[in-house]
Write a structure and sequence with these properties.
- This is Rubrerythrin.
- InterPro entries: Ferritin-like (IPR012347), Ferritin-like_SF (IPR009078).
- It comes from Leptospira fainei serovar Hurstbridge str. BUT 6.
- Helix 4 (59-83) packs antiparallel against helix 5 and helix 6 (130-149) runs antiparallel to helix 9.
- The protein has helices spanning 13-17, 24-35, 45-57, 59-83, 91-114, 130-149, 155-186, 195-215, 219-243.
- It contains nine helices and no strands.
- The longest helix has 32 residues, at 155-186.
- The protein has one domain (44-243).
- The chain has 249 residues and is mostly helical.
Length: 249
Amino acid sequence: MIKPFRQGSRFLFFYSKMGDFFQEAEMLGDMASVQSVKVRTRVNRSEIRSVLEDIERIPSIHAKWLNTLSLLEHIGARKIHASQTGNSISEMVLRHASEEARHAAFFKKLTLRVGSEEFSGYEPATLLAGNSAVIYFQRLDSIVNRSLSSEAFSRGKQKLLCYLYVTKLIEERAGLVYEEYERILSSGESGISLKSIIKEEESHLQEMNFHLQDNDPKFSERTDYFREKESIFFSKFFETLRNLIPVNS
């Protein structure tokens, strides 16, 4: 049985490693608003597609969305570097980090194409539910780390499994969102394609599954537990995102 984690003061431990994207007070304020939203624990494809269609129709909001995707890919790259240190970093880890950084640059370039120079950074005003997106990442990273901490893993093994599980969960979610996003983009005249990004994310996911099956005897059970938690965290982010789209878009 997978042991649930306990809430504690280390909730923001991952944010503290990621640099000052936002003031901590702003993060906590947004966290409170997200926690107050009652949501279902599942978001289906049609709901995601509907929100993405509304986002894509409004250039100013679309630019913020692209910038938020860039930020999340950047955070992913930073997290890999922060968690995988020492002399045993593999080629897979280095390649994954470099690809996430390249994805961040890809989405930043698209952001500047759709928007303007005001989107050159990651200021809160240039993001769409940016704080909530970071909190989603935070919560996922935190629950995986805490759950694995309750097991008798060595420090090195725990760090590896945390990296593998968080990456797996993020890649699964990204695959679903990017597939729907690609369908919308390909049906329009934006000239944007995510096909290469999707292919690389699928490759990352295959690698994560291979190494998790090889390193964790509880892979199947733990995956089910983490997926359930991820769906709750994503639902909260998704509701915040949906509430920012104009009703008459």
